[in-house]
Amino acid sequence: MTTELDNQTLALSQAIILAGKWISGRQWVPATGGNFSARLDKKQCLVTASGKHKGHLCSDDLLTTSWTDQELICDGKPSAETLLHTQIYDLDESAQAVFHTHSVQATVFSRLIDAPSYRFNGYEMQKSITGNTSHADDVRLPIVNNSQDMRLLAAEVKTRWQDNPMPYAFLVKGHGMYAWGDSIETAKHHLEGWEFLIECELKRIQLLPLLTDHIKQGNGA
Ligand SMILES: CSC[C@@H](O)[C@@H](O)C(=O)COP(=O)(O)O
Ligand SMILES: [Zn+2]
């Protein structure tokens, strides 16, 4: 049993380290921003240690952490935002991995929107988010206000979830994105899908004031 757990921990650590290199390569975790985790069981996960560069993680930077409600038990200093990860695991029993990123596009976009969520519609890539089957359907990305108090932020996520289960991601205003999935691979797909959708929408918003009827009508004969 112990050997089995060690092998599972080792495999998940390696997968998170690789994901960190990929995410860092996309410029989504500058400096020591971002944090990652993978579920070990119902109330235990492997989470990145606080203050590490997420593109250069080693296996010692992945800490086994258990929790009950908002109490964390860990031999070490887990991510300052671990409570958001554990909140997601508690709210979504299917969640197996959580990635938190600080991309420029998600950070800027979240600051432009003065509403609790943003509606995406018309993008084929909406189908990269589990449960979405058409570009023609709406998918709303929640935006929660930032706070340095993780208990407060986790409680806010819980309240918002109870109103509307979240589409495997949410934005924290002026801060970044949380994305998750039922495996490390799916969590990466959700992260990449949402980053793509945000980038498209941000570009569309930027270009809208420059759009002329001439361009709209196909740029002439
Ligand atoms: C570079 S400061 C960013 C932190 O305040 C925080 O938002 C973050 O994402 C990383 O915190 P960490 O404790 O390393 O997991
Ligand atoms: Zn952060």
TrEMBL record:
It comes from the Bacteria. It is an enzyme of class 4 (lyase). Zn(2+) binds at H100, H102. It catalyses: 5-(methylsulfanyl)-D-ribulose 1-phosphate = 5-methylsulfanyl-2,3-dioxopentyl phosphate + H2O. It holds the Pfam family Aldolase_II. The keyword Lyase applies. The keyword Zinc applies. Pathway: Amino-acid biosynthesis; L-methionine biosynthesis via salvage pathway; L-methionine from S-methyl-5-thio-alpha-D-ribose 1-phosphate: step 2/6. Keywords: Amino-acid biosynthesis, Lyase, Metal-binding, Methionine biosynthesis, Zinc. NCBIfam families: PRK09220.1 (NF006672), salvage_mtnB (TIGR03328). Catalyzes the dehydration of methylthioribulose-1-phosphate (MTRu-1-P) into 2,3-diketo-5-methylthiopentyl-1-phosphate (DK-MTP-1-P). This is Methylthioribulose-1-phosphate dehydratase. It comes from Marinomonas phaeophyticola.
